[in-house]
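thought: fold this chain, then report.
action: predict
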Amino acid sequence: MGLGTYENYHRAPPDMMRFGYDAPEGVEIRGRYDGEFAAILDRDALQFVAGLQREFRSRIKYAMECREEAKRSFSEGASPEFDPATRYIREGEWTCAPVPPAVADRTVEITGPAERKMIINALNSGAKVFMADFEDALSPSWENLMRGQVNLKDAVDGTITFHDKARNRVYKLNNQTAKLFVRPRGWHLPEAHILIDGEPATGCLVDFGLYFYHNHAAFRRTQGAGLGPFFYLPKMENSREAKIWNCVFEKAEKTAGIERGSIRATVLIETLPAVFQMNEILYELRDHSVGLNCGRWDYIFSYVKTFQAHRDRLLPDRVQVGMTQHFMKSYSDLLIWTCHRRGVHAMGGMAAQIPIRDDPEANNAALELVRKDKLREVRAGHDGTWAAHPGLVPVCMEIFSDNMGDTPNQIQSMKREDASAITEEDLLQRPRGSRSLDGLRLNTRVGIQYLAAWLTGAGSVPLYNLMEDAATAEISRVQNWQWLKYGAELDGDGLGVRVNNDLFGKVVEEEMCRIEREAGKEKFRRGNVQGGLQDLRKTMHSTYTG
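observation:
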C-alpha cells in the first residue's frame, strides 16, 4: 500500500465533524469548522472546485484505470517503452510557450510544506523559487491542508507573519522574496473531508482549485508580472494525465477571465513510465509548461514498484542508487535534452542535507557532497536545483553561478544532443551494487520514524542530518518489501544471509530499541513510533500496491 491519505489512519468521528460551512448544493464538508478555513471554503470557491470535479472526474477515473492496466502488464513481464503511436510528437519540431521572464532564473529552488514559518523562511532564503508543498512534504490532515491554504493566501497578499512564542521572535517577509510555486497532490489521492455529489473530491483539484481561486489575481499582480500562478505537478505516469491538467488550467483561466497560457507548471518526472513520455507530457502542456524536474527518490521507488513482479530487478542498498548509476544518469540526461529541445527548464534533484551545527567536520563533509552533486548537475546542463534547507541555498547558488555566469539558465547553451541516442535499454539498465544488513536496518529505522512523524501530522522530518519526506518512506518500505518477498541475499557485508520473516522481525526489534535509545523513553512514547511500525509491517506482508 502507499501512504494514501492521512484520513485512512485518523478519520474524525461523527461527533467531531462540523457542518457550518456555506457549501453549495452537492458539496459536503466533513472537516472541523474553523473561521479562517471558512474564508477559504466560501461558497464561490467551493463551487469552482465542484465544477472542476464534475467536469473532469470521469477522465481522472479512466486515467487511474489505465495506470492499473499498465501495472498488470508490467507484472506479467512487460517493461515501459516509448510509445510508437506518439513517435510523431517525439520527432516533431515544436517548442513550448516562451518561459515567463519572472521565472527565467530558477538556479536554486527551496521546497517545503505549506506551513507558516516555513513559508516565510523559504521566501526569505535567497533562493529564486520556493515550492510550497501539499504533497510529499505535508502530512495531509484536514488541519494541515486548510491551514496551508490560509498561509499561502497571506503569503501572496504579502501580509504573512509568524510569532514564535518560544523564541519571542516575529517572522515576516523581506522586501525581495523567492517566486512562489505550489505543488498539489497527485491524481490518485482523494480528499476524504470534501464530498462532491456523495464522492470524495480529487485531492489535487481541491489543492489547486482553492489556491487558484483565491490567489490568481494578486499573484499575477505581485509575483508573475502578469502571468501565473505557477505550479509543480507530481506523480504523473502518462501524457493523458498531463492533458487533463492542461484542460483544468484552461477551464480555470476561462473562469477567471485571464488569457490562455497564464498558468505555468513544471512536471516532476518521478515515475518510471513517465520518463518514456517526457516529450508527450510537454506537448500536452506546451502552452502551460515551464519544464520538467528530476524527482529522483520517487523515481527509484517507481522503478521497484514497476518491476515488483520481476525477481531479477532487486535493487542494491538505496544509498548506492545515486545519479551515477547508468539508468539514473540516462534519465537525467534525457530529461535535459528533451527540455532544452522544447525551450523549457530542466531542473535537477534535491539536496536533502541539513547543516550540522555541532560538528564542523561532519558539516563540511556533508557540504562537500552537496557541492559535488550540484557541480555534476550544472555541468550536465540542468538549469537549476532543489535544496531542502535555507542553509544550503548559498552553496548551491555559488556552484550554479560560477558555472553559468550571468545567464539565467542553460536552455540555449546546453542542448545535449548526445543524449538523443539514449535507448530504452539505457533507461531500464539494472542498478549495480550490493545489499547489506546495514541497508535493511537503515530502511527499517528511517521508515518507522518517518511514518510515526507522518501519522502525528509532520510530513517533512529531519532524520540523521537529512530532511526526509514521503518519498523516503516509500523507497524504504518498498525496498524492504522487495528483499523480503524474494528472499534477497545480503551479499554486501560478507554475511551471505537471505532476508526472511525471522531476520526482518529481529531487525525490527533491534531497530526499535535503537530508536528508543536515540530518542529517549519519553519522546519515544509520545512519538507514535508503534504506529509507524504497524504501518511498515502492513507493507512487508502484502503485495505492494501503493
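thought: worth noting. Residues 5-18 have pLDDT under 50 and may be disordered.
final: C-alpha cells above.
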